[in-house]
Amino acid sequence: MAPPIPGRSARPQWWSRAVFYQVYPRSFADSNGDGVGDLDGITERLDHLSDLGVQALWLNPVMVSPMADHGYDVSDPRDIDPLFGDLAALDRLLAAAHSRGIRVTMDLVPNHVSSAHPWFVAALADPTRRDRFIFRDGGGPDGSEPPNNWVSIFGGPAWTRVPDGQWYLHLFDAAQPDLNWEHPEVFDDIEKTLRFWLDRGVDGFRIDVAHGMAKPATLPDMDLTENELLRNKADDPRFDNDAVHDIHRFIRTVLDDYPDAVTVGEIWVHGNEQFAKYLRPDELHLGFNFHLVQTDYDAAGIRAAIDNSLDAAALAGAAPTWTLSNHDVPREVSRYGNGAAGLRRARAMALVKLALPGTVFIYNGAELGLPNVELPDDVLQDPVWERSGRAERGRDGCRVPLPWSGSAPPFGFSSTPDTWLPIPADWKALTVEAQRDDPDSTLTLYRRAIALRTGRAEFAGDTVEWLGDSTFRRPGGLVCAFNAGAVPVTLPAGEVLLTSGPLKDGLLPPDTAAWLVSA
Ligand code: GLC
Q1: 3-class DSSP state for residue 517?
Q2: What is the pLDDT of residue 10?
Q3: Which residue, of 35, 166, 349, 405, has the fewest CB within 10 Å?
């Protein structure tokens, strides 16, 4: 562990050991029968989250949006989209969650707004009102070439031309124009937004594309040899420009007026030094670190990802964060090979992740062991599908609505079978109802693991000591062993607290993890 960083609070904050549950609101629970999940649906299903034992929620965006990128295109950052309810529905959710001791954090999208945002509508109508965005004249003799060669993360050029001939920058969809973070009104507006939600009782924010926002003044060309969704190169001029840290410092000055509120940044950068900059004492509280998301079920890879994440957080004296999946990446069951083996590995990794120090994020449905879904072309909605010329299928496969109960779609998610994405007909055994009282279910495994992590003294301490390639120990005494090999292995000494699957003749089988404490 690094020595204390000056300015960093010595008092452990609630988030530094919390288990967060990520709710993708479209897909969690639908209260009004339109086939899309909503805020009242979340409130109605809070028992599931209390039973699971999580301490906080992160809601993907629920602000007013034309939904070109399912809410990451915000046209009014200080109101709720009618698809999800209204401000009263958010208040109901906040009250119900808080009464159960569950905090609620929201998504904040500062890199861009929707093309339907009043600022952008005004900018299109009047060329003198464009300075809150990044408009430029085109290249080439007649301005018909984009101002530089930047490509959108979703595919195609990052520039779109408007009828009077100028071009505007959008690192994502054309319906998501990038804001100009050199304009004071952009700062004033984010402050208003932060205070609006914090004053309502929201407990913090997940900050979208926290490595974006600032752009180099000259907008130099990028190296086009590598451009993968959310995996930019180290010298990519589109991201991780130094001025971004002024923006985080500004956000932090507002957050500091609400001492219990947390920020967690989505940070895709290269190298721990770069990552740690975002977690300096006057910037973000937490940063998502995606090493485990990018790692196969492989002992050396998992160990390296864990060590790397610990090192990165320790550089800034911040709590590490752990996540196996989210709304942007294929679900872990499928990443680890699908079927029974994929599920076994996902369960083993759930124990690995919940054994680690710091903050854990669970993406809704991971606790049910849901796989990614292969959806037919005609239901795909992610803008990635069209923008990539239908080369990339996008992220819909991890966003399929959750199965709650019953034996056929919509499995209690909604009163209509016409859900925004179809739910596979064979998910009967994966519903919350089917798993709730089954001692061997993935849901039961998650519930037990979270209860142990939250309640047992053996989970104390901020470090991890490796006892072998795939066994580590926490200072409090918890030992976690996972088997990523092909044959059963001997368990470390101790009393077994929990295993992700049955032991075999006292040995730890392949694709299985165990928690032990000294007897
Ligand atoms: C983030 C979000 C992703 C969204 C993108 C643009 O990466 O997680 O879902 O599409 O930002 O806002």
Answers
A1: strand
A2: 53
A3: 405
Q: Are residues 473 and 325 in the same domain?
A: no
7 class by beta-carbon count within 10 Å (0-12 exposed, 13-18 middle, 19+ buried): exposed
Distance 123 CA to ligand 1 centre (A): 24
pLDDT of residue 289: 84
Ramachandran angles phi, psi of 273, nearest 5°: -60, -45
Extended strands (E) in 374-469: 465-468
Identify whether residues 127 and 276 lie together within a single domain.
Answer: no
Domain match, 54 and 71 both? yes
| CB of 396 shorter than 6 A to ligand 1 | no
**Predicted pLDDT at 17:** 94
- Domain count of the fold of the chain: 3
User: Pick the catalytic residue: 30, 69, 208, 283?
Assistant: 208
Domain with 255, as residue range(s), is 14-111+185-451
Q: Which residues contact 41 (CB under 8 A, 6 or more apart)?
A: 25, 28, 29, 30, 31
pLDDT along the chain (519 residues), means of 10: 49 89 98 98 98 98 98 98 98 98 98 98 98 97 96 94 98 98 98 98 98 97 70 81 98 97 96 95 95 95 97 94 97 98 98 98 98 97 94 97 98 98 98 98 98 97 95 98 98 97 97 93
Nearest CA to ligand 1 atom 2: 208
Task: Please name every residue paired with 159 in a beta bridge, in sequence order, or none if there are none.
Answer: 169
DSSP 424: P
User: 209 in ligand 1 pocket by Cβ < 6 Å?
Assistant: yes
Assign 390 to helix, strand or coil: coil
- 351, 410: one domain: yes
Contact (Cβ atoms closer than 8 angstroms) between residue 187 and residue 214: no
- Across 163-190, b (16+ Cβ under 10 Å) vs e yields eeebbbbbbbbbbbbbbbbeeeebbebb
| Ligand 1 atom closest to the CA of 268, numbered from 1 | 7
288 beta partners: 266
Query: Is 208 part of the annotated catalytic residue set?
Result: yes
